[in-house]
Amino acid sequence: MLKQMILLANLACCTVFSVNLLAENISPLPLKQRAEAVDNLLQQRVRQLLPDLMQQADIDMWVLISREYNEDPILKTFLPSNWLSARRRTILVIHNPGNGENLETLAIARYNVGEVFKSAWNPEQQPNQWQRLTEVITERNPGSIAINQSQDFAQTDGITATDKELFMAALPDNLKNKIVSAEPLAISWLEKRTEAELPYYRNAVKLAHQIIAEGFSNKVISVGETTTEDLQWWFRERAAKENLPVWFHPSVSVQRLDDPQPGHPRSTGVTIQPGDLLHVDFGITYLRLNTDTQQHAYVLKEGESDAPEALKQALANANQLQDILTKQFEEARSGNDILLAALEEARSEGLKPMIYTHPIGYYGHGSGPTIGMWDKQHAIPGGGEYPLFSNTAYSIELNNKTTFEDKTITIMLEEDAFFDGDGVSYLNGRQQSFHLID
To answer: Which CATH architecture has domain 60-181?
Structure first.
């Protein structure tokens, strides 16, 4: 069954469609098959990806510690699909012996943690969990022991003050000076995508696009009756119907050319009317992979069969900004370098850009290079200094303002994309024409 799933996923990803030319709709896998896929992908990542990441980060041992319902964001990604949280205190140890030997993946727990982490603690022989952890470390005598602490990246700062204090108290003095931050390894683990994951990721984005297309249609919207809040909750309910968690509450807003301040979307207490330019921001989680999408729809006025030319030009300008930004993606460039170069080129082309692109993957706002923030269109310390690596995914998030006849329209786009080291490709196309509502 799993081989059939992978084959179908690969077939589904072979063609990239414009969001307005999507092929036949797909359905999410049943929950049991999703669990099988998650566990299979995790095993592949640990076996095929993690040894190289540890070697590149020069880390011999990685220790992850969490207590139930207070999970380290990284440790959560190592749990098997049928573990919805850590149990009691969950301690995972990943040891790279070097010399081409396989990783050791151990759980300082009474039982195995899925198929990957084998139990290395018998409480009847050694009642103290911390003492057993230090025995495991001492037996292997690693050159470095990494824990998840970081100043700049929240998802790699997962060890709690209590767990670190107890760990350091139990650790022999001769091992304390081997403690290092796991930040470079932890970020790489979060941001790197494998070839096996990509078909599933493409399908995740396609599912999100399908739901947006349905929401931005007369099947859902009754012009003159449906409100922006109605539509927000419809997106939430529609995702829940497919067992697709949203990782933020969807937002829907409206722009109108006759507003006193056009170009400033309104989202509260608005009933959808002819001539409205609608905008949605929507993201789901599927197979532990997150999507983040912003698209637009136009509500046709009587006698119209398409959006006005001015709006279509505004969308084309935003597509041009996407192209300018993704052209700047080069391995080893920092997020700040990419941002500043893209802004300079866009302004030289007469655009009015704002760029706030971010990594995506295990988390919607993932760890990796920060490429601008909506309120910081300048170099950003910390995350903005982090370099771009190949085989990583991003939400190409931005907006551009277009002015015509003293009216301003803001086109806000966000599409998920993959950087393979040579260039950027959208995981399921991008919006290049408006969804139209009669």
So the answer is: 3-Layer(aba) Sandwich (3.40)
